[in-house]
Every structure is written in C-alpha cells, then in structure tokens.
Queue: 3 jobs
Job 1
Amino acid sequence: MIRFQQVTKIYESANKTVKAVNNITFQVEEGQICVFLGPSGCGKTTLLRMVNRLIPITSGTIEVNGKEIHSLDPIALRRSIGYVIQQTGLFPNMTIEENICVVPNLLGWDRVKMKKRYNELMEMMGLNPDEYRKRYPWELSGGQQQRIGVARALAADPPVMLMDEPFGALDPIIRERIQNEFLRIQKDVKKTILFVSHDLDEAIKLGDTIALFRSGELMQHGTPDEILSQPKNEFVAEFVGSERALKRLSLFTMRDLVSRLNPADRKSAGKRDLRHTVHMDTNLRTALSVLLSSPTGEAAVVDDNGQISGVVSIADFERLTGIHPSERTSAVQ
Amino acid sequence: MEVILFLQDNWREMLQLTWEHLQLVGLAVGVAILTGVPFGIYIAQRESLANLVMAVAGIIMTIPSIALFGIMIPILSLIGQGIGFLPAFLALVLYSQLPIIRNTYIAIKNVNPEMRDAAIGMGMTAWERLTKVEIPLALPVIMAGVRTAVVLTIGIGAIAAYIGAGGLGEYIARGISTSYTTMVQAGALAVSILALAIDFLLGRIQKRLSSQTAKTS
C-alpha cells in the first residue's frame, strides 16, 4: 500500500515559488494499479518521482507498505522499488541479461540465482532467454525493449513499481499488445503500481484507480468508472470529454449486459439474420460498433463454446444505466 | 630519393629513435590518462571548478613547447634533472591534460540524462553509477581525447630532442644544425608516419568501443 499524506512540493526560484504538487492526500491499495493522469505540467511525474526519493519532498509524508520513505536509506529504498521510464532507460553498454540483472547484481545475488531469475522473467515476457542473453538493447525493437524494461523492474521482485509513461513512445498497435501483456503479467505478480500516463484510454484500460491531476492538485481519485460516470468537477468532466459514455462502455463486456437482461426479454436466435456476431468477452464499446453496422440493429451473442446463446439489440444497452463497476461480472481483458 | 637512401643506411638507428620516441609519448600519455581522466570525472560533478580547470589547461596549451622546455630546465636543475628525459616527459604530460580532461568532462556531462535517471532510480550509489554506466558510456569520447593527446605529443615530442630527450627529433635537430636537409626530411617523415599510424590504430580501438555503446536506439 502506498499512502500520500499532505504531500507538497514547492520549487523556489529568485522571483517566484511554484507549487508543483499541492497538499495531496490519497492512498493506493496493495496489488492495485493507480494511473496518474493529467495534462503535462500537472505534477504527476513529480509526485511519482518523490516516491523513490528522486525528488525531495517539501512537506508531507509518503508511506510505502507502512514505512515512511524518509526513515529509509534512499539507496535501499530504490532497490526495493521497481522503476520503469519512458524510452526504457536500458543501458546500451550492457547485454540484455546484464540489464535485467542490474538490481539483483547490486543486491549481490549469486550467479546461479541471477541466471534463473533472468530465464524466468524472459519467459514471462514471452521472449526466448537464450536468444537475447548476449544481445544489446539497440538490436531489439521498441516493443521488445519495453518488455525488457518491465522485466528489469521486476527482477528483484519488488512489491512496488513506479512506471513513468513506459508505453508512451510505442506505436498504437504495439502499445495495445504490450498493455494486454502487462495486464496478464500483473494478474500473476500483483504488484502495487503507480503508472504515469497522459492517455485517458490507457488509464481506463490499465488502472484499477485513476488519480487525475491539474496544476499540482488532485482533482479526483476513483475507479475508471467513477471518473467517467461521476466526474467531480468541471475539469474532470472536460478532461474525460464528451466521449466518456462511449469510453465507459469499454469497461464492460457482453457478459455484463447479458446477465442484466430479463429472461423474458431475451430473444432467441430463431430464424434471424445472424451474420453479425459478438463474443461474450467482447467489450461493449466494440459490441456497440458491431450493432451499429448491423442493418437490423441486432447481433448474435456467441459463448465460450462457440454456440449462439442469444441475440442483443441496441435497445438492450439502456439496461446499463446506473450499473456500478463493482457489479461487473467479468473483467475486461 | 636521397631520403630513401638515407633510410636504407640508417634504418637501425631510426628504429632505435622511433622506439625512444614511442616510450616518451607512451609514458607521458599514460600518466596523463591516469591523472586527467579521474580529474575530468571529478570536475564533471563540480561545475564551478570545471571552468577554472579548463581555463588553466587551455593556458598551458598556449605556451609554446620550446618555451615550456626552457621553463622546465631551471626548475628541474634543482634536482639535477634539468635536461633529458624528465623535463620532456613532464611537458608532454602537461600538454596531454587539456584534450584528456576536456573530453572526459564533456563525455561524462553528455551521458544521456535518462541513463543517469534510470541508474539512480534503480538504486545505484554514485560510485556504481560511475563505473557501471557513466564511464562505459563515455569511453568512446574519452578515447577520442586520448587519441588527440597522442598525436599532439608525438609532434611536440620531436622538439624534445633539443633538450636531449632523444627520439626522432634527434634527426631534425641534428640535421638543422649541420644543414643536412635529407636528415631533417627523414626525421620529419618518420614523425608524420608514426603519428598517422598510431592515430589509425587508436581510431580502430575507438570505433570498436563506440559500436558497443553509442547505438542507443
């Protein structure tokens, strides 16, 4: 768990003082991803970098797993926190194996243990350990480098990870794939993660919670659904934009919708035109797009066994009003 | 033509002088690396000191070599080493300082700030950061400084013959004083070839170092 209490950062220069981070209090539960979101200069990166003491705090306290960070040695603190930066920050003078084993090496692990950990991590990332062991970062694609960057942060199995726009420099297709892999890995490792992003879609997709900042102040901290459906103020509403209802749909899957339909309303497949189909695990934003492209406004729902289990129409979407994310029956992949 | 005949007759002596020359330059640059590189790294952490050090090193560079040898003579005479190897060696060490200190300083300063950030963020101490990340990344540029220093001192080393330090400058000095043009030409040619050859060799080493570290993307 990470707890911020009245955290403030003031930069003083000759003629003015700037409050980069102003009196921020909130907490991130263990095993959750909290995305720091906001326009550039809103203080999100400053706040992140205060957690591993790259930036000194002006006032307030930050606790990581119950320990106030200033009671710890900064070197030991940083070694116990995974750190991923934009453009990966891989060291070009080191091979992939050396890069991944940087922190284990600093911690003085023995060779056998490091090698085992390297193999483990590479397999987790879906990369062949032996193929990359002796290669250098510049020989890898951007997406592969980013995977290595994440693997490196996980190397010493830290309970907490800080990620500063790690996927920002990737093209949209690769970014989406890596986001999916990242979520899959997180399901196993369950780290407490602070993740800086300026991309709302990324925040909705990855965040268990989103903390939205503006000029050093915390505007709202809540689940993606809360941010989208109950924006606290003008700024949040404007930031999430007029598409927020659509974006919100991507938080739910067809399974959520079907489970909410009255059995009486359920239409059987019958003799309908069933060229348009959606899978149970499709998110509702995509499903809506399928329905809109169907001439009848209807589509068949396919279950895990590939069987058609029913038919949905655009009208069924009204069932979703007022649905709360805690009532979700399934997680969006 | 005459130069070739001269070399045919004197190649043994020529090799001997080349060896002396290399010893003088090698030792001087070796010591300059051992002092200049740590110094360059040190001033990269202390910005206020950097300008002063660069200025002093720059001033030393502007002293004509023949004058510097002249200054060395009375000072080192106090310990009975007024002429010969020691004053030449010291002068060459001083001349090597500027390219080596400057390149080291610039190389360390120019290490990608993201690399530094990653190194600190992952929990490296200042020493670990320096030895595992900054110095390896700075190596090609430091090497370029060493290369400049070597070529520079091979040239200046030729003048050291005037204070009895030996080396290929012998031919030039002796040739001038006896008006024997061929001897001067042979000495000059040998110094040039030596400088080019060593520069080429160090260039290869520098290239090898860069190919591992410079490609960051």
Job 2
Amino acid sequence: MSSREAILAAVKKSQPELLPLPQQDYVSTVPGDVQRFSDTLESIGGKSYLLNQEEGVLEVIAKLFPDAKRVVSVDTSITVHYLHEYESIVHHSLQDVDVAIIKAQFGVAENGAVWVTEEELKIRVMPFICEHLVAIVDAKEIVPNMHEAYNRIGLAEYGFGVFIAGPSKTADIEQSLVLGAHGPKSMTVLIR
Amino acid sequence: MNHNGTKDHAELAEKFNRDEERVNWHDRTLWWIRQKRDKAAWSLGDEWEPLREEASRIKSHTLSNLSEYLQEFEKNAQANGMTVHWAADAKEHNQIVHSILSKQNIQQIVKSKSMLTEECHLNDYLKEEGIDVIDTDLGERIVQLAEETPSHIVLPCIHWKKEEIGELFHRHLGSPEGVIDPSFLTNTARVHLREKFLTRRIAITGVNFAIAETGEFVVCTNEGNADMGAHLADVHIACMGIEKLIPKRKNLGVFLRLLARSATGQPITTYSSHFKKPRKGQQLHIVLVDNGRSTQLGREDFRNSLKCIRCGACFNTCPVYRRSGGHSYHNAIAGPIGSILAPNLDMRQYKDLPFASTLCGSCSNVCPVKINIHEQLYQWRQVLTEEGYQPKSKYMAMKAMATTLSKPTFFNIAGKAGRWAMKLVPGVVSNQYNPWYKEREMPEPPNESFTEWYQKNRKKKNEQ
C-alpha cells in the first residue's frame, strides 16, 4: 500500500462522526471606512496618502521618492515607468528597483492590507524585491474586514494572490521593530 | 532524567533558571507580547469570542471529514499544476524532499519557517546528505548560525539578547565588533540573505492553511522571506501537516483575523500569500505529512490538539514556559501545545512534558481555536501514569499519600509528625532531596491542625 492509501485509510479510521460546518455569512451593512484603513496602515508601519483631484500619481512618486533611480510598474496608467519587457525579463534583475508601483484590487479597513494578484503584478516577486512599495487603491474599494474581503474575492481564479499590510518587518532581535527585513523598507498606499 | 539519559523539563528548566536576571527578562518580554495579543483581541470587541468559536467548529468539522478533504485538496492542487506527495512519517518526508533536490542536482537551498520541517529534523537529514540549507527567517537564521533550534514557534530566538546576536553576526557575517543595534544587525542579515535568495534555485516553505475547495495554500510571514524564496526559485517545495486543511477559501476570513492577533497582536501579518498555481516555468511541490497525526486523530481526548494553527499564544501566556524557556521542552514545538502533541509521537521520550504545567488554564483561554489545552495536559498525566511511564518513587509516594489521606488516624499522626519535624528538625524537610524545597522557603509550621483548631473554637461555639 502506498503512503497515500495508508494515510487516507488511517485518517478515515480515526476521524470521528461527521460534524457540521458552520455556515455563517458575514455581510456588513456599512462600507469600509477610508479613515480607519489609513489609521490602521499607519499603525503597522505603512503610510497612506490621499490623492487630491489635481494630483497625479507620478507627481506624488517624484515628491515622495526624489532620489529613486529605478522606478517600475506594470500598471498601464503609469506610462513613464512602465516595464515593457515584463514578460521576458529575468525576475532577479529587479533587485535594484527602488520603487515598485502596483495597482491593488481593494483594501481592508480593519488591518490596513491591500489585495493583489498575479494578474496585476505580472511578476510575483515585484512587491517583495523592491526597496519601496507603492500601492494604488480606489477609495471606494475599501472593505470593512476580512470576511468582506473574501466575499469579494469569491472563487476568483489566480495563480498567486497576496494581502500586503505594510512594509516587510521583523522584531526578532529583542522585539525591536525593524522595517525592511527582506522586502520593502516602506509601503505607501495612494488612495484615490 | 529521561530514559535515554537526556535531561527532562525540570532539569533543563533548572539550568535556564540559574541566570535569574535573564529569566525575568524572558518572562517580561513574553508577557508583553501576551498583552499586545489582549489589546488586539479586545479591539474586535464582541466579535472575538464568536470568531474563536467558529474557528474551533470549522476545525472540528474538518477533522471529522479529513480523509475527504485531503482527497479534494489533492485533486484541486493537481488540477492547479502542483505535484502532491504523501509522507507517512518524518523519514519519508525528508526522503521526498531530498529526492526532489537530487533530481534537480541541487546542493544549496533556502527555507522559510516551517515547524513541520523542524519536527521532521529536515535540516539535520539534509546536512547528512551534503545539502546546505539556509533558514531565511531572521530569528531562525540566528539560531541556525548558533547551531541551536528555535525556542519558540513564532519567535525563534526570543531567548537571545542583542549583545549575543551582535557577537554572533560579528563572527559569522562580519559585522563590526560590538555593534548591537537591531536595525544595523537586521540589515546585515538582509544583505547576507539577499544574496542567497538571488542565487538559490530551490525554496522550501511551510504552510499555514491549505484550502480543499481551491487546492491552494496560504503562507503568512512578516519578513517576506517565504515569498522572496519561492518567487525567485525554479522549484518551490511546500511542506505541511495534514491537519492544516480548511474546507473553503472564505474560511480564511475567520482564521486570518485570529492568527496574527493571537500571535503578536498585529491585525494581520504583513504578507498572507496565496499560492494556487506554479509560476510559469516553475515547479511547485506540496508534501502532505502524517507523522502521527492520524493516530492523534483517533485519540478522542487529544484529537482537538490537531486544531492548532501555531500562533504561539499559549506559549506567551504560560507561566511555566515564560520561566523555563523553549529549550527545556526538548521538542520542536515547546510550550503547552507542544506538551500535548509530543507524547503522541513518543510517550517515553516526552513523558515529562504534560507535567511542565501548573494547569492554570490560561493557555485554553487564549487559544484562538479553543483547544482545551490544560485539560489535555491533565488527561495525558493520567494516560502516562496508567501506561507505566512514571518513576517508581512517584508511585510509592502517591500510594503512601493515598493511604494517609484515606485513614483519619494516619492523617492526624502524619500531620503532627510533620509539624513537629518542621519546627524542631527542619533539615528533614528543608533539604536538597525535597523538590518542593528548591527555590522556595518552606512555610512556618502551624501550631495546630485545622481539625484541632475547629474542635477548640467552632465546635465549642456551636455547642453554646
């Protein structure tokens, strides 16, 4: 008997009688609160930036990262920094990216996270390998909590999806919080 | 002492307790994390307790239908393009991982945190086979450089001080001598590990949750090390215990709300990565490991321990863990939960662990999936005693105690003798052979027993 069959047989023998799966539906009546999203994001080491009507993303990027040498994006609206060769590029070569700009599907007010999938990222390692991460999210795309987040995701198809909440961080050395463990040293969410 | 001559929890804890200042520091640090957990839980107000209840019930359901869910997961994962492997025990798990490396002709890999691979002693196994494994979680890298194992499942080097880490990095990573600034040291590790991420072609990660419905799995980190490894490697191997399954994707809403809040008091980990399909041109392997879990599933009293989502909240709150340190548990998973998981794997080797508890119940109170940890610790004590895993001296002492307590005359004589001895020849009680005397002042012996006092006072009063 293969290990597969042996494990399945052992599990079947050991498992108790079927218990019901709770089927609670979480549907909130209120939309996500942009202020709460911003406050939570700031409290976990991220930054939020409310774009006003006249301001363009590129202007803000230039203002926030005046010294950035390599800025990349695969969002078609970011024409200047658009990474045309994203399909052929060796992903490791993004290791000197100063700022990566990504478009997020939505944000979660209760924990300051944004949801992105391979569809928007094109290159999975992009939001991890860059020195600074900028995510753009629409103000009307903030959901209150994780239940609503998964209601929204539903059974969508993707190869890879990720909630990102703030910069890469660690507190492994005596519980001192350090931003920029392996990934971005900062994460800014531009809310428009 | 354990049967194979290794030290048991009490002996190892004694060693840890020699440095009182360090014990106090360890205790305070973990309590601080426990308090952060409380604040995070309270921030959800009335939602918290129903969430715990629901998480617990989702896990109960999953365990009651695990064989079906495993097959559903396998089918969907394969349809997603993953290769699914099954390992009955630690040895088979290690062999499977090694065979994947051999096929690729790879000798150097990166690995992010996976308590399962610690449980299976994968690093030792691969080292024997000539494979160089670099642990990429900062805390794990620190203990790896020091040739130690993690002392906590979430905070692997919680027992290390920055001065010692500075010294360790100076020796191994060439940081300047005497530099102990956590930012500087973290950056030193960042530079060191960045090179590994960029050059190593196989990455191993753990799994926090696997979803039967979609055949995907979720890995949670704050550092981003699992993602850096997996997204840059040609081959990604994810290792998981079979109890990591949950039925539906939407169940993640419940678990991700609980996990980080319980672990560190964060509202969510920085990264909650959902791996569904291999990257174009990449291989994605998943190893499903039993290693005693199907046995534990069959033990009715201990089945609930398989609900564990490895948040470490029971460690941080435990008065024994905080004051004895993770290594005293001589098991990959320490703390209260480790103490109910370990005897399932080997009763003889871990017979001491269910006794490393005050049974205060704090662990059960903080557990996000409502495992009755302290009750299981108590139940393990009974099983271990029935199965004969107690030292003879304890049986004798318990027998003597039972006789004394069941015979009032004996009890009175013993009480008198005890009070007399403690007063006149305290050395009989207060000596190194009495474990109760260690680290404790014995109490002042009372002049009379409660019975004597009662006879004199209350009884008289009642008669009046």
Job 3
Amino acid sequence: MSENGKIRVIVATDCGSTTTKAILIKLVDGEYRLVVRGEAPTTVEAPFEDVTRGVLNAVREVEELSGHVILDGETFIHPSDGGDRGVDLYLSTSSAGGGLQMMVAGVVKSMTAESAQRAALGAGAIVMDVLASNDGRLPHEQIERIRHLRPDMILLSGGIDGGTITHVVELGQVISTADPKPRLGMGYNLPVIFAGNVDARGEVEDLLTKKTALSMVDNLRPVLERENLGPAREEIHELFMEHVMAQAPGYNKLMGWTDAPIMPTPGAVGSIMETIAEQRGIEVVGVDIGGATTDIFSVFQHTFNRTVSANLGMSYSVSNVLAEAGIDNVMRWVPFALPELSVRNRIKNKMIRPTTVPQSLEDLKIEQAIAREALRLAFVQHKSFAVGLKGVQQERTISEAFSQSASGATLVNMMDLDILVGSGGVLSHAPRRQQAALMMIDAFLPEGITQLAVDSIFMMPQLGVLAAVHEKAATEVFEKDCLIHLGMLVSPVGTSQEGKPCLKIEATLPNGTVINDDIPFGEMVVYPLGVDESVEAKLTPAKGFNLGEGAGKPLECTLTGGVVGLMVDTRGRPFELPTDEHKRVEKLEKWANAFDAYPA
Amino acid sequence: MAHAYTPGLRVAEMTVLRKERLLPIKGKVIVSKGDHVSSDTIVAQTHLPGNVQLVNVASKFGLPPEDLPSVMTKKAGDPIEKGKPIAVTKGFFGFFKGTVNSPCDGTLESISTITGQVILREPPMPIEVDAYVDGEVVEVFENEGVAIEVKGSFIQGIFGVGGERAGEIHIAVDSPDQKLEASLLDESMKGKVVIGGSHVDWSGLQKAMKIGVSGIVVGGFDDPDLKRLLGKDLGVAITGSEDIVTTLILTEGFGAMAMAGGTFGLLKSREGKKASINGATQIRAGVMRPEIVIPMPDAELPAGDDASSSAGLDIGSSIRVIREPHFGSLGTVTELPNELWKMESESMVRVLKVKLADGSETVLPRANVEMIEG
C-alpha cells in the first residue's frame, strides 16, 4: 500500500471493561516500534457514561510519558508533522459493557449450530447459548431461554443450500415467538443474522422482519463438507458497530474519531494470532486470563479457533473457578496446609472486592494456584471445542465429515505446538516471570519442545486491529515489542517412577558451560540461556519417552532462551501430583525452587 | 497525584434517595406524581405475554404441512381451551376421526404450512411492581413506572442474598463485634430486620428463617454456609432472586468480622424504625450492592448532604483493610507515598501508611483498603 509509507505515528486504544489502554507506535529508522503505553479507568459507567473520557485520559498519559503531542484539547491532531506532534492513524478495540453477547442457532447441534458458534466466537462474541433442533429442549423451553438471556444479537443458521427448509424455519418460528428484546436500550429491534439455507430466506423474512432487525448473509455451511464463516463474521462486526456499540455511551463519538471500524477486543486478538501463525507457518496457542473471563485462541493445521470461558477469571469470576474445579483441585497447587474454611472465605472476599491485590507471599501463592485451575479448565473447554471441520481451506469428503463429528477428535496437538503465549494480569504481572512460566506449564502441560512467552502489557488487541489496516506495523511491533520470551521448554511424553532415567541432554551453552546431563523422571530444571541466545542440543529421551520423533528416539535441534532460560520438565505426561500431602508440598517447593520462582 | 480515591460503601445518616420502579415491559402506572406511597403500594402493573406451546399437528395426523388448514377447527387469533379440539381429520365415512386437543387455555397464535406446527399462547401473566420504600412519587414514566423519592438513612452492604423486604429494625446484639447466636433470636422478631454484630452462623440463620425474620444484617458469614443456603457453590456474584424468606446482608465480608462502628451506631440509632432492604448484589460492570433504606420523612436534611462520599483518600482518612493480612482492621491513613513499594509478594504497588486501631503502623497496597464513608 503506497499510503503505508506516509504513516509515521499510530495511536491505538483498547477499551476494556475496567481499563482503557493506549499505545503509541512510531516509525523509527524504517521500523515500527512501540514508544510508550498509557492507561486510565474505562468510563462507560456512571457518573461519566462516556467512553471517550477514558480514551482521552489514557491518551493524555501517553502524551505525558512520551512527550509526543497527540491531542489538541479533545481532538486528535491529524496528520503527524514528522516530529513530535500529531498522529496518522488512530484505531480502537472494545470489550467495555460486557463485550458482545450472542445466541446462535443451527439445525444440528454438532454441525450447523457448531459452525454458527465458531463464526460468533471468531468474531469476538461471548456465546450465551446454542439453540439447535436436536438440543434436547422443548420449543417452549428454548423460547423461555431466549427471553431470559436478552442477547445483543442472534445468528441463525441451518440447512445446506438446496436442502430441506423445514427445520431452519422451525428455529425461525421459535425466535419469532420469543419476540426477543435486546440487552441494551429499549428503542431498537434486536439484530438477527440469517446465514442458513438460501431457499429458506423468504419464510425467515416473513417470520422475523417485523419483530427484529433482520439481515441475510451467505450460508455459513453451504454444503456439509465446507464452512464459509467469513460473511457471517463480517456481518457480526458490522452489526456490533451499528447496533451494540452505538447503544453504549460515548461510542458514537469514538466511532467518529477512529480511522477504521472499532473491533471487539477478542476478535482483534484472534486476528493478530491468525496473521502471525500464517506468516511463520507455526502452531500457536494464546491465552488471555482476565478478571471475568478467560479467552483461548489456537491455530492448528491453519485452522483458527477461539473459545471464551465466560465465567473463569481471577476477580469477578474467581469464585466460579472454585465452583467448577472443586476445592481439592485448587488446594493441590498450594504449597502449604490451609484450612478449607479459610480458603473458601478468602476466595469469596476476592470476589466481592475484586480489585484487591495479594500483599503476602502466601496470598500470592493461593492466587496462582487458582490461576492454574482457571487456565486448565479453560483449556479443557478449548480442546473439546476445537474439533472437526473448520474453515473453507479444508475440504473433506462427506464420509470424513460424518466420521469426525462422531469421533470429535481435537485439533489441539500439544506435541505440534510451537509457541504458547500467555497474557492477562495474573500472568503478565506476576512478580517473577518464572511464576508465569510455571503456571503455564502446570495448566497447559506442553509436550515435546515448546516456546513460552507472555504478552507483558497485553498489546495484542491493539495490534490485531492494526493488522487489519497496516499489517507491516502490526507484525513488526508484535515481534520486537509485544512478546517477552520466557524460553523453550523440553517436556518428554511418558511416565515412569521418580528417579528413573527420563532424558539425556547434551549441549554447550553460550557461556562455554558444557551440559551432559541425565535428568531423571520427576524433575524441573532450568539452564541459563538468555533472550536472543540459542544452543544446538542433542536430546535423548529414555525408553518409553517421546519428544516428537517417537519413543526413545533422539532429537538434534536448536533451542532458544528467554528471561527464564532453557526449561526442562521431566514430570511426565500425563502429569500427576503426589497424593500424599507431605510429599506433594515437598515436590511443589522443590520445583518452584528449581525455577527460583519465589523469594526464599 | 495528590489524592488516591478508593471508594467505600456508602453509609449516610441522612440523604435523599431516588428509586426507579419500572415494569419489565410496558404496562400501566397506577399512582400519580405527588402521591405518598408505602413500601407495599402497587405502583404499576402489566401482563407478560403467556408461555408458548408448539404442537406439530401435521405430524400427529401424518399429513403434509401444506394440508394443515384443511384439518384445523380453529384459526389464528381464536381463543382455545385446554382439552378442547383444535384440529380434526375427516376420517372414513365419519368414522375413525382423528383429533388434536389443545394442551392449554389461551389463543391460537399461528399455523405454519411449512413446518406443520401450530403455535398456542397461554393467557397473559399479571406482573405488579410495588413501591419498595415509603416515599413520594416524584416522576411518572408513562406506561413504564415511577420514580420515588425518599428522605432518610442509607447503608450499603458488601454482599447479600434474597430480595426486597421491609420490616422494623431490631438490634439483637450489644456490640458490633458480638456474634448473632441462634439463642439471641425469638418469635418477637418475626417480620423484623434484625441487626447482628460480627457474624451469623448456619444455626442462627436457620432459626431466623423458621421464625420468619424479614432480614438479617451482620458483619460476616461463612462461605460453606452460603453453599448450604443456596444448595450450590456461588460462582458469580449475581444475587437477589433467591427464594428465601430471610434476606441476608453482609456489611464486611466472608468470615467473622466486626461490623464497622459507624454502620452499627447508625443502625442502633434507628432501632424501631421501618427499613426497606434488598440483598441483590451484582459485582460486574455496573456494580450493585445490597442496601438498607430507613425512611425519615420528618427529619432535617443536614446542610451539604453527605458530601463525604465524594471526597478522596487523604492523610487522616479512616479506612478498613479489605484483604489479608489485617483483613477487617480499621485504621487511619498517616502517609501516602508516591513511589511504588515492593510488597512481601514482590508485587510493586502504590501504597499507603496506616495506623491501625490497635496502635500499630503498617504499609498496605492502596488497592487493599477502602474508605469508611459517611
């Protein structure tokens, strides 16, 4: 794009439900780099009820920290003067006001309904419920559910083009009868997108035109063996702007300021991850653990998947982690004895006062124990969703289409995973990076050789929206400034008894140290290997252990370092903690010490 | 930054509150501007559309959907009666007639020749909204509801369960750090709002519910008891719709914690007065806390109202610690350093220095205290 050459200064904001974050990117010596980041409380709620207040405050902090003048009063200065004044591009994402909450409907739960769910999640929505003709509920129960949930938008799909229209029209009847009302504002009709059998358009129009703001897009499953999610996703983004965002206080003004449409935050994160995975040809898992929700994104076999665990988080939803994981699963990560009553009351107190921070080391360890379970549960949900037929690139025969829905095999293959990226307060703001590494290893249990990283200041939303407008700037900043590499992790798959052989590692570190170590089963080891450092290594797993080449097969490879170092985990896969209380605590302490995770 | 602002829960001795009482869908407002209403006065009413039942008549008769109109004995808009026919087949020479009876009373809403379904709607359900507080109707929103203004005391809790209730205030303990034991409750407290001290346990709450106490206001409660009360672990703090006779409001949090002196003192000074309470809590964007409203229509409003709620945290401010260590302790701010401090957890945070009630001094993250307001 010739115009790209003119873009020297970029400001991007992300309006979260509690904080608005702004970043300043500048073209320096032919390269786009992050200059500074600022933040301010989001101002969607009373007494301000105008999202632009928070945006201006965050941008002013950027001005103060960088010395670059961006605003003239309350107006962005366009364009930049080539020096320290003005911006060429201003973009924004938003998840304020609870983000985009949708219901989706499809005829068969595991087929069109699942495709509809994927389209909605991919567009950055929280899917409140999935309706299907075969979901086991009676029509009046489905109607009650629609009325009760009050979504921001409904995506209706069902039927392949040219097939029977009966079932999808039945779903249309259910929606029409429920006469759904939108969550925000009384004065407009609920947006409904129809992305089903084109032959049913007439009937669906008759049923829904008067009661809803109906729009039609191409069938998201035109034939059984192919998905076509793009048009539905684009329509969701458009309606999100037109209807949902337009209802939120101050957004009309903000929409007038931005040089590209405002994207839902998770949609933007998905977009940057898809771009990076595509460019580098790698398999990626990313996680963003927030106060209320945990989002997981993955790209395996060129297929992007996103899940939102709407009630797994570290503040508002912290109590739900306990409810879903159970007290025993949370307590197993706590390296000291604590009465159940005390843990329960502490977790509830965090829920009712969600902005408090752990002051004592003991409190920090409890919080990180909960985080492990939140991440683990969210990843279980992700793996069970990232299955079967995906995007349009992947055509399959009809028999494969049936067999996969029956088997439901996940696409997530931990052995193939190249990089695991963590973000969100508990990971990004852990006092020591080693703690983030340990939480991610314990929750995700990577296999083989995996690079670990954290997005230290959670820039991915802003870079995602930037990628849609200026890919070069987005990828340059992503590579140089966004990720903090923790280092590579070597984790052989297999199990054995403690102390038995597991892995032999041979390498010469950049500082001249020669490694020729036999690491027994049940250990955690860290070797010093810094950011931008790498080492040629020979890894020989013991009999029964696999690093991706087959059981017992050696592997010669390049391992890269990071702020933690080169990490080795011989605790086995599947991983199990000792059941004996004393032994469990002893092990947790030993592994944490190996990582130098906590102060002595 | 000269000030750090950590808002606390509102405890106002005398204030003017405005409560909007709105219908879920449009309906009829039955009071007028200027009317004086009591907490149980109905202010607006409407009818919710009835439940819907779908009957696939075509498949019951084995007919193609397009033939449906030929068998229907009722058409769209017709009233229907439970057990009475809505469709009949002709049969052979008048014999072997097939019949589909209506599963409910109501109206026939539509007949689909695409799906073969008939949609029946049950009669509308009446919905009423009461005033919740004793006060004056100051605004009428046509077809939607009213705004009621009430002058009196207002106290916010930190967490509650149970919906709107009203009752006379009864103080059941001698001090804010005394526990509300079951033995302190008796039949005379039926329909009242009982004020405990630091804690109520399972047996105390059980007894209160058995007696028919309207509400309990205490410092703390234990999470395992909350699980017993709700029959499940509470995952997300969205409460208020629980089907329980006694609304429970916590002023401090989970565990045994002395009720803040100001809150207890204010409630004590209002003993015998009528209070409207609501346990509904939502800790999300648009936070909602449980509340106690004590109407005092004849009292004088102090000059400047309770402006303290908008003041910032400053040296000399009274605070309450809201996380371990020192959770629940009260203190006074002695210093507000600007630079970040390293905590024992190694987190770098903004802090304040506090003199606690026991005379000791400590440094705490600003995020871990809240102002005691009012």
